[in-house]
Specification:
Number of domains: 2
CATH class of the largest domain: Alpha Beta
Structural class: alpha/beta
Radius of gyration: 20 Å
Number of helices: 11
Bound molecules: NADP nicotinamide-adenine-dinucleotide phosphate, zinc ion
CATH architecture of the largest domain: Alpha-Beta Complex
CATH superfamily of the largest domain: Medium-chain alcohol dehydrogenases, catalytic domain
Strand content: 25-35%
CATH topology of the largest domain: Quinone Oxidoreductase, Chain A, domain 1
Largest sheet: 7 strands, mixed
Distance between the termini: 35 Å
Helix content: 10-25%
Length: about 350
């Protein structure tokens, strides 16, 4: 059985709920039979990283090394690994393990594993009980089945945001069968939202962006949206009542979803992917139109690989701004101000060379 030495690893993480990210070196486990060692080249910054670092959800255990939009190159393999080779460009998203035996895992819905999926950071390893640490680091060890393949045509930096922002918006659009003739509204034009627009447009839907930021109108149209509504403009929102099949709601804070329910037509669905919180009360006026209020979490392994392959084939890529690891705190502050166009990606060379 393979059991290499452990790998001392440079990383950045948070030590307390101030959420300040600083150098914090960690040790990656020696390779097990089914493990892959990956040299990380890029890692996207998700708003969930910020929520976790600042303990917005009240369940962070410190220290935490965030990052679940990971791309890199295979550097070593456990003896039992045959699906990857040294030198392959590979990726890891939000999950690094699951039971793989329950009825949810068997359907390819590992993110909803009945025993609980293991998060890429802040999770507990199923075999040795150690804590998982994410992609703000120079390398990572991961079970081979949870390592995805980066298609040739996708650059590593453009691939990274697809691992969370991409799959989290792709999956509900597929689940609710968005296609030609669908009218989709995307609420919040950030990392998730801009990928939601790109995917819904690629699927043939008519897409409207719902935003608080008037200065994002030109970007929304350039991303392929057909219309742009300022959510504080009550008259404009009212004029669009009962016209949408889906609202994909990516807003990252607790808020009233009622104005978005009013936008739905018969059997319309509002899918919450952004707000991970208690919701303000919602009136059951949902019955007036048989409306559905739903949620969706990332996507399974096969669906994530399908999405990566589709992005390569159809030339779908996120809009990114590259940063050095050392600039992550500024990036967090800017993300909180909705000042990111539209995903920060860390160039891990900056940490390798630090
Ligand atoms: P982001 O890049 O910061 O984008 C969020 C966008 O929402 C902002 O650009 C802004 O768009 C809008 N917004 C921000 N604050 C708002 C407020 N107070 N009120 C109304 N709108 C606001 O964040 P992200 O990375 O896309 O993540 C969005 C959320 O999804 C986060 O909460 C994250 O934790 C969650 N998430 C969930 C899953 C899942 O599996 N369900 C996966 C990944 C992330 P405008 O300027 O256009 O208004
Ligand atoms: Zn994420």
């Amino acid at each position: 059985m393979t059991q290499t030495n452990e790998y001392p690893t440079r990383a950045y993480g948070a030590s307390d709920s101030s959420g300040r990210i600083a150098r914090m070196d960690i040790v990656r486990r020696g390779l097990r039979e089914d493990d892959v060692l990956i040299d990380i080249s890029h890692c996207g910054i998700c708003h969930s990283d910020l929520h976790t670092a600042r303990n917005d959800w009240g369940r962070t255990t410190y220290p935490v090394v965030p990052g679940h939009e990971i791309v890199g190159t295979v550097a070593a393999l456990g003896d039992g690994v045959s699906r990857h080779e040294i030198g392959d460009r590979v990726a890891i998203g939000c999950i690094v393990d699951a039971c793989m035996e329950c009825s949810h895992c068997e359907q390819g819905l590992e993110q909803y594993c009945k025993q609980g999926m293991v998060g890429t950071y802040g999770g507990t390893d199923r075999r040795d009980g150690s804590k998982t640490h994410g992609g703000y680091s120079t390398r990572i060890v991961c079970r081979d089945e949870f390592v995805l393949k980066v298609p040739e045509a996708l650059s590593s930096e453009h691939c990274a945001p697809l691992l969370c922002a991409g799959i989290t918006t792709y999956s509900p659009l597929r689940t609710w069968k968005v296609g030609p003739g669908s009218k989709v509204a995307v609420a919040g034009l950030g990392g998730l939202g801009h990928m939601g627009v790109k995917f819904a447009v690629a699927m043939g839907a008519e897409v409207t962006v719902l935003s608080r930021s008037a200065d994002k109108r030109a970007d929304a149209i350039a991303l392929g949206a057909h219309d742009f509504l300022i959510t504080t403009d009550k008259a404009a929102m009212k004029a669009q009542a009962a016209t949408f099949d889906m609202v994909l709601n990516t807003i990252p804070v607790r808020h009233d979803v009622t104005p978005y329910l009013h936008l739905l037509g018969i059997d319309g669905v509002q899918v919450l992917v952004g707000m991970i919180d208690m919701m303000p009360e919602v009136h059951t006026g949902l019955f007036l139109g048989r409306k559905v209020l739903a949620g969706s979490g990332i996507g399974g392994l096969a669906e994530t690989q399908e999405m990566l392959d589709l992005c390569a084939e159809k030339n779908i890529a996120p809009e990114i701004e590259m940063i050095a690891m050392q600039d992550v705190n500024t990036a967090y502050d800017r993300m909180e101000e909705s000042d990111v166009k539209y995903r920060f990606v860390i160039d891990m060379k900056s940490l390798q060379e630090a």
